[in-house]
Amino acid sequence: MSSVGKIDVGAVLGAGRELDLHQAIPLPDFGSFSFPAPAEVALAARRVGRSLELEGTIDTAADGACARCLDDVRLPIHLEVSENIELDGERADPLGESNVLVGEQLDLFDLVRQLIDSALPIVLLCNEECQGLCPACGKKRDGTCTCPQSDPE
Ligand SMILES: [Zn+2]
Ligand SMILES: [Zn+2]
User: Fold this and answer.
1) Listed residue (72, 70, 73, 74) closest to 133, CA to CA
2) Which string of DSSP letters, residue by residue, matches the chain?
3) Contact between 111 and 81 (Cβ < 8 Å)
4) Torsions phi, psi of 139, nearest 5?
5) How much is the pTM?
6) 68 Cα to the center of ligand 2, angstroms
7) How many angstroms does the Cα of residue 143 sit away from the middle of ligand 1?
8) Are the beta carbons of 50 and 87 closer than 8 angstroms?
9) Which ligand is nearest to the CA of 64?
10) If you measure from the C-alpha of residue 64 to the centroid of ligand 2, how many angstroms do you get, rounded to a whole number?
11) Residues with beta carbon < 5 A to ion ligand 1?
12) Handedness of CA 73, 22, 91, 48 (dihedral sign)
């Protein structure tokens, strides 16, 4: 049984063939984010010198909660990918991205997960202008709250 997202890139590394990777990669929850659908991955893999080059796009969406008002937010994610993975496995930093390539096995799942994780915002907002929740009544300060507007400062 082969695990999800493991790609044999032997033909790319050996024969120098170009490989088109079109895959739907399911993503595990990350922090407070969850992913409603698999990431749509469209990458071209080719060998350039001593590295494996991956170019293309990744599209998905992340679900989270607004940091101010806690409303559900669906954040579309579109990544332009241009990655070079060194083929020198021996000196690879185990925490670096190079561990996505072991021998001729590309761990596409792990690569996509790393790229998506690093693209997620630290603070998610439903909208830049979000006023958050009213400290007095707990409703959204977007007209729902009818308390007199008093500035805490
Ligand atoms: Zn909000
Ligand atoms: Zn209020």
Assistant:
1) 70
2) -PPTTEEE-HHHHSS---EEEEEEE----BTTBB-SS-EEEEEEEEEETTEEEEEEEEEEEEEEE-TTT--EEEEEEEEEEEEEEES--TT--TTSGGGGEETTEEEHHHHHHHHHHHHS-SS--SSTT---B-TTT-SBTTTT--S------
3) no
4) -85, 165
5) 0.82
6) 14
7) 13
8) yes
9) 1
10) 24
11) 66, 68-69, 71, 126, 130
12) negative
Task: Tell how far the Cα of 129 is from the centroid of ligand 2, in angstroms.
Answer: 17
Tens of pLDDT, residue by residue over 63-117, are 999 999 999 999 999 999 999 988 875 554 555 555 788 888 999 999 999 999 9
Ligand nearest to the CA of 143: 2
pLDDT in tens, 4-47: 688 999 999 998 899 999 999 999 999 999 999 999 999 999 99
Tokens of 115: 């790229």
Single-letter code of the amino acid located at 14? G
CA 134 / ligand 1 centre spacing (Å): 12
